[in-house]
Amino acid sequence: xxxxxxxxxxxxxxxxxLIGSLVYSFRVRFVNMPRGISGTAYEPxxxxxxxxxxxxxxxxxxxxxxxHLPALSPLVLRSMMDTLVLAARWSGFRGSVLAYPGPRPSTxxxxxSHRTHFFDSAVAAAAAAGSPIRQFVVLGAGWDTRSYxxxxxxxxxxxxxxxxxxxxxxxxxxxxxPTQSAKVEALRAAGVDCGHVVFAxxxxxxxSWLASLKxxxxxxxxxxxxxxxxxxxxxxxxxxxxxxxxxxGLAPGSCVAFDFLSRELxxxxxxxxxxxxxxxxxxxxxxxxxxxxxVSTAAPAGERAREFIExxxxxxxxxxxxxxxxxxxTPLGGLIVAGVPDPREx
Length: 346
Ligand SMILES: C[S@@+](CC[C@H](N)C(=O)[O-])C[C@H]1O[C@@H](n2cnc3c(N)ncnc32)[C@H](O)[C@@H]1O
Known about the structure:
The chain is an alpha/beta fold. The chain has helices spanning about 1-30, 40-55, 60-65, 75-90, 110-125, 175-190, 210-215, 235-250, 265, 275-285, 300-310, 325-330, and strands at about 135-140, 170-175, 195-200, 225-230, 255-260, 315-320, 335-340. It contains 12 helices and 7 strands.
């Protein structure tokens, strides 16, 4: 009944959503892209914003910067986001697409919510009392707002409360210069305090993120948590490899959390020939970007992830497949937490 009501409301509100989508697409193409600002950064961000508005995941920072991001505007937000939220509220429908934590196994439609929850949990563990982590780095930060407000579980990266060391985490964000300066402008325009975050503009394909961070006061001898969400697929194999090897050289106890796409999907091989070709075309046409990197997810995907991580000097601390290994045999990708082994671990 709720699904039906939601579907009916969606049909009625569709013209408004269409207008919003058209204005949004226009702004991505003709306001963002000419300035070199990431278009793909909106994909996970819009999901987090939607979850916030629906009331399933708190993200006040995302809400505050929304009207100040280059591809968004009050018209886009009202017609795309508010209409969907109204349909969900009036119908009471909270299907898996709007759920947080996302369902497992996730699907193509729900994997961003699954991924968001996986990374929220990893960040919360790094920020928790008793954690050895002293620095928090977001690589390819886009419009991520985890450094600017309480996390969904209530932990706050800005506040020392509850942390064993009694010190707040040192926060860093790395992104390509145009995207990063658009974010800083949006944070300032929204009045979001970002004084505790150090911004290190870097293009991973041109420059070492580690060298850039060191120039900005990063201490490689302190245990560090690195969040690398939604980025590896846009880099080439060498850039991913180099990043993981650089993480492996950080202080013991350091961790990196990242996601990857199935290599079979990126290369449009079985069982993703159709989906891979469609996604390749859509990504290029809409965002002008291509998927480059993937790790094979042929069963058993967890073992392949372990081999991949260990070959780069790290230890696998957490793995989840996304996109349903059970249904398809080959998941769409995976989520990883990898740590720098402590020499005392043997
Ligand atoms: C899909 S977005 C993900 C953003 C953010 N991590 C999130 O989950 O909301 C990919 C991000 O990676 C950044 N990125 C892509 N290629 C990069 C490169 N070569 N150097 C630095 N950043 C890059 C983009 O600017 C963008 O912010």
